[in-house]
Amino acid sequence: MNHGGMAVALVGATATGKSALAHSIALESNGDIEILSVDAMTVYRGMDLATAKPTSRDRDEVHYHLLDLVDASEEFTLAQFQAHAREAADAVWMLGGSVLYVGGTGLYGRAVLDNLEIPGQFPEVRVELERSAEVDLEGLYVELERLDPVAASRMERTNARRIVRALEVTRGAQRPFSSFGAGLRTYPAARVVQVGLRADFAILDQRIEQRFLEWMQMGLVDEVSRLLESPAGLSRTARQAVGYREILRHLEDGAPLEDCVRDAITASKRLARRQRSWFERDPRIEWFEDPTLARQRILEVLNSPDGFVRD
Questions:
Q1: pLDDT score at 2
Q2: Mean of the pLDDT values across residues 65-88?
Q3: Which CATH class is domain 202-275?
Q4: Measured over all CA atoms, what is the biggest interatomic distance in the chain, rounded to whole angstroms?
Q5: What percent of the chain shows pLDDT beyond 70?
Q6: Contact 50, 220 (CB under 8 A)
Q7: Under CATH, which architecture does the 7-118+189-199+283-307 domain have?
Q8: pLDDT above 90 for 311
């Protein structure tokens, strides 16, 4: 558990300019502000370009945390990320620094900023449920209605992934899935002030396309090929990364590269919209379209009592 040091969060959709803004703020602080990257895919070593991971030069200039935690062949869970984030924040605060959380992975942000209680993983139970879901998903939903009617009421009876996860926890932990916290659509009092950066989708779409084409020129196909050729390959979770999964279609299935690039750009644009929708549901976020005003608010928070984490 952290001890209530100084922190602020910068959130928003991909390509809004969060990373550049955060880097400049931390750089100008002369080491007083350190960045905790709240991203589900920058935790993987070797996945650098299409995750927009800070470069080696960036990391020479500013202290970054939560990058390159595991090999791309490994599975990595939300609970593991939360534990690493707590340790990283404690390390920064112990030395008298301030934490700037930066990222667009909404669930990971909620886990860290709201200190969510995260259900465990029960792989053997999950495998059994996934097999059952292939032949009798309706039966699993009926079981969930009986064991945890609250959880069942929060999901569609055709959503296999969510039904399996809820039953996995309910069976494995011997307690209802819904008993783990109040749910993601409930927003408690803020522990950490959140500053949101947003831009018009027309601007984001242009940035996303240009950025992905630049990644291609920088060698994205070669990067994915190296990951694929490593002895252990890529994990299930690493394969879900937008940009990587489309290039994998080209390398593994022979899909035309031009089609895969187009699909990756489209998927990235859709991701930006999902991220915006996720964050805009949170009434605690203070939104800015002007990066200069967002910068001013971040520094204001870190230089006032608002910057103390409310534990």
A1: 44
A2: 96
A3: mainly alpha
A4: 59
A5: 98
A6: yes
A7: 3-Layer(aba) Sandwich (3.40)
A8: no
